Amino acid sequence: MKSTLTRLLSVVALGLASLPALAEEVVVYSARNEQLIKPLFDAYTRETGVQVKFVTDKEGPLMARLKAEGKNTPADVLLTVDAGNLWQASEEGLLRPIKSKTLQTNVPAHLRDPDNEWFGLSVRARTMVYNTGKVKPGELSTYEDLANPKWKGRLCLRTSKKVYNQSLVAMMITEYGEDKTEDMVRGWVANLATSPFPDDTKAMEAVAAGQCDVTLVNTYYFGRLMDKKSDLPLAIFWPNQNLKNKAAGVHVNVSGAGVTRHARNPAGAQKLIEWLSSEKAQNQFADVNLEYPVNPKVSPDQKVAAWGNFKQNLINVKDAGSLQAKAVKLMDRAGYK
Amino acid sequence: MLFALTVAALVLIPVAVTFSSFAEVEGDILAHLTEFVLPDLVGNTVWLMFGVGVGVSVLGVSLAWLTAMCEFPGRRVFDWALLLPLALPAYVTAFVAIGLLDFTGPLQTWLRDTWNLTGLPEIRSRGGVILVMSLALYPYVYLIARNAFATQGAIALEAAQSLGLSRTRGFFRVALPMARPWIAAGMMLALMETLADFGTMAIFNYDTFTTAIYKAWYSLFSLSAAAQLASILILFVLVAVVFEQRSRARMRYGAVGRGAASRRIRLSPLLATLAFAYAGIVLAIAFVIPVTQLALWTRDVVASDLDNRYWGFAWHSVLLSGIGAAMVVTIALLLAYAGRQRPGSGMAWLQRLATLGYAFPGAVLAVGLFIPVAWLDNQIIEAGHAWFGFEGSEILKGTLVVMLLAYLVRFLAVGFGPVDSGLHRITRNVDEAARNLGTGTAGLLARVHLPMLRASLLTAAALAFVDIMKEMPITLMTRPFGWDTLAVRVFEMTSEGEWERAALPSLAIVIAGIIPVILLTWRGTRAHG
């Protein structure tokens, strides 16, 4: 009975499903925005003749979708922001390891999965932005120091619900452990001038308006805001530069990609990711959003380069993923909304 | 009965998928949420429900009364214009409100610079969320209550006055109780939408059940913990629905004939001025100011962002909303009829279940629907592969059918509320009279019921149309490749905090959503004279 039904359904379905898959194509599920990836995919098609089909959504639904589709997924590539999401995708068995000399060369070791299931494609640096009228750069030093009572009523933060601050806290856990990190987060919360903001831009605007003196943001938000209002009294500070421990260096995260476990065109998928890491594509990939290229041979956009050089934190970004749930719980306990 | 069962089953599939999450309990995550997150958010959610419930009722009922029953300058314009906020997604109102009223906004900046004045109440607060949600959602109550007042209010009030009640007491003792099923239907819609809202709460950083669901899913990587929270939410809504239905189960309504516009109450000059000011202020802050802000932002980006793809986005939006609204209204009508033919508690339960989708956070619902569809797809593909050597990855998923079914599940409540209230108002006497004149069932429906239901059907269609236009998570999850809509465009921009660039597609949604709202009022006005 059941098999008759299934048979009937499949006959109908086969009649409906047209099969025009002639030219080679790669299908991408992307949590990176359409406006940031479409120009690149268009360029790839022009260069290679390979069509790139893609659909965008948030990473949670995309991964749920991949999981539900199982081995019949149309997706070849999963492209997303934040190492935490990439780590999670690999954890759930949605990605496959790939061997690629090109990617090993183009992507520094701390910005890719040790098991080669995903690779960073652009670097996002999370740093401090301060009010130039109220803070001297000499007063600033580390993320940890923002918990110091001298910043009472002077700190603005974005909500803890966004993955960026979760990753930052996860990085702290690798050096200081949970208890000490929780104390630090409590210190941040105690120093808040006002309740946390929904996005980085709002937090910077509050700093500029004098509601508080310093905040933590991803640099490209700073770039975008200054593009629009270049006269704001804001500047970037690179923290943790002189530390010698694991928390040394500016906290960085990636947007990145991997080949799906059940890709129908894994070779095409790998080629697309390799191309995205190439010198040719890296500039556009990073510049379109004022991020940093992941490929060390490529220099950032002029505007980005003008913010100065900094030492990156070299902990593998994977750790931000594996520690994310811990970080979130810790932030809940510390009362960071 | 069978039909109602089918519709309820359709809705129950994603709910069942969600509830099945209890199979894999993640104790530590739930324990954490219970200890550190739930206490806050239960309080927040209760406050929000209470505040928005009061807010939308007060705004909706008072404005409906004014435009339906009173005569004052500008009434004709307010009559339809007060519906316009419906076309504006709540998170847009929220963002504009914060943009204008927060510490960094122009108002506070001006007060600081000019008067050295600080310490205004924070907009990013419980009161702020309630205010914004009430302003965004009052049209649900307004629209439905206005129809009720317009068709029966005047006569009821006259009857009350002839019995010696003053106008005020007549309003509270007669007209308001008579309109209660409609007000309740509108309020339930507003509250369910509030419960499911994620965007506005994210902007205010206000934690509710829904934000906790997303936290469990996105931040703690536990879809099952998220689903478990979602099922608690659904139980919560069921209890509320049952409570609401019980409380009006014993009330019976008879029609009192058609209202007459000529009998509107003429307000004294002072009261007329106050009415004008009140309606004007609500309209200004709920619609005019946010839309002006959107237009200003759009002006800055229109040159670089507006390309010919926008026609495609707009066309997809209108097409999907149109088909979706037609489906919602048709099924809602059939479901309401099923209840009329076979009244009883079993049927009432099926109807309640069938309309639960509206309170479900969109993304959770989308996943709950996608999992069984993908499963079915996999079965078919494997069978097709075994017997015909079929090579493909998609049969049903990635088609418009899945998308439209998902819209139906999500928005059936929006259609069902007005249609069912409308149908309740057609008394049995009407049916009997028609039957005595030899009218069959089909004739009864076509010649008697449909004309009487026209206003309700239009209300349902307009609500569903506008809601589908604004809908995001289901559209994102189930759209076929290339089927981007205006809402998808808004998502792309807002997810990176680019509000200026999100203004253009938002404004397009508002404009496209105004069309059915105006159509609705125009037809409604003609119907009521």
Automatic annotation (TrEMBL), chain B:
Positions of transmembrane segments: 47-68, 80-103, 123-145, 182-204, 216-243, 270-293, 313-335, 356-375, 395-419, 502-522
Family: Belongs to the binding-protein-dependent transport system permease family.
Pfam families: BPD_transp_1
InterPro entries registered for this protein in UniProt: MetI-like, MetI-like_sf
Record's bilayer topology term: Multi-pass membrane protein
Record-linked PANTHER family: IRON UTILIZATION PROTEIN (PTHR30183:SF2), MOLYBDENUM TRANSPORT SYSTEM PERMEASE PROTEIN MODB (PTHR30183)
Ranges where the ABC transmembrane type-1 domain occurs: 42-242, 314-520
Source lineage: Bacteria, Pseudomonadati, Pseudomonadota, Betaproteobacteria, Nitrosomonadales
GO annotations of cellular component type: plasma membrane
Keywords: Cell membrane, Membrane, Transmembrane, Transmembrane helix, Transport
Protein's cellular compartments: Cell membrane
Protein name: Iron transport system permease protein
Primary localization class, coarse: membrane
Biological processes per GO annotation: transmembrane transport
